[in-house]
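#struct-pred
JK: can someone run the complex with calcium ion? inputs below
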Amino acid sequence: MKATLAVALVVGCLSLAAPAGYSEAPKSAGNGGSGSAWRAGEEKAANSAAVRVRLLRVASFDQPTYLASPPGDRERRFVTERAGRIRVVLGRRKLRAPFLDIRSRVSTEGEGGLLSMAFSPDYARSRLLYVYYVDRSGALRVDRYRRSASSADRAERGSRRSVIAQPHTRRNHKGGQLQFGRDGMLYMGFGDGGGAHDPDDNAQDLRTLLGKLLRIDPRPGGGYRVPRDNPFVGRAGARPEVFSYGLRNPYRFSFDRRTGDLALADVGQDAAEEVNFVKASRRARRPRGGVNFGWDPFEGRGRNPKGSSPSAAGHVPPALERTHRQGFCSITGGYVIRDRSLGSLYGAYVYGDLCDARLRVARLRAGRAQGDRTLGPRLPSLVSFGEDASGRVHAVSLDGGVFRLARSR
Ligand SMILES: [Ca+2]
Ligand SMILES: [Ca+2]
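RT: done, structure tokens with the ligand placed:
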């Protein structure tokens, strides 16, 4: 049995070396460029014709889990801390007072914690934002909060409304990602209920929200509506919130901010980690729904010998697979880079793993990804990536450091 954040904690304890990186602050930004450890050996050769990337330290946090910015706000970056606080970085300065503190509501047992957040597409007007966390009963929970009317750096006291809650009794596979799609809907990834090999066979069962990617339309006052164009609306025995299924622990997924394509990383069991890719339709501004990603009859591109669900007919295999033999243990899905300052990396998908500290990039395609390679920088305890309002990509280490991917000069 394998854990996501629990593995990170172990890795964090064993890793005494600070992650390689340079400060974003101007006084020390000049020391970068010809970085040391990460340019050794084969990586140097692999990157010789490519843009070199370094990690600029934004700030340090207490077990950071995610980074996001409100749409259009180029000054603020918000960082979730696992125990339940949201911190604000204003410009290059981490503010002392948290934006929100829900530590009394959050459980950090197993793979729990405050795991991500998402801003409403109309945040500038509505001031609404959403948080994904594991509550004191172990349930997966998405709540809505509102920004203070008087300060962009504080949530409004007493503004919490429940959006959705899903009981989940085991310690692992808590999912964790919230994202608004380009269609304006809120998507979230729920794990399969935990344990090993999906003991309740939830992922293939459309009657439960566990092991699914969900798509909902949150109501401003709390709760949600089910979008009428969801793939299983009207099908008997299926939950209409389900957008796609056959997932083990979709801990991180993202939408390409330019195209709306879905890149969904599913954490594997004993053999393989995977990234799934679904192209967006231009008209619908969202990826195709109803896709079966194969768990637990399949893990990665292979059959799962211990899978017990009925066969996953018509399932879509991942675009990218990294095996445990290759050193991966728990994949951390990232973003398609849309930061023009990163040159030839524009359009590449960056991702990584908790056990292999080397960041990687690949070009995602329907079918099979291309050009999968190490990027250069290493970041131990990589729990997440995050995008700011300008599309700049950040990498988050549960050890404390949050870094921006920048071009090496
Ligand atoms: Ca099973
Ligand atoms: Ca799969």
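RT: quick notes.
Residues 5-14 form the longest helix (10 residues).
The domain at 5-407 is CATH 2.120.10.30 (Neuraminidase).
JK: thanks, will look after standup
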